[in-house]
Amino acid sequence: MSKFDMSSHKMVEVYRAAGEMEAHLIKGILESDGIPCLLKSNAAPSAHMFTVDGMGKVKVMVWEEAAGKARELVGRGGNV
Question: For the chain, which domains are there?
Answer without folding.
Answer: 11-44+52-74 (3.30.70.1530)
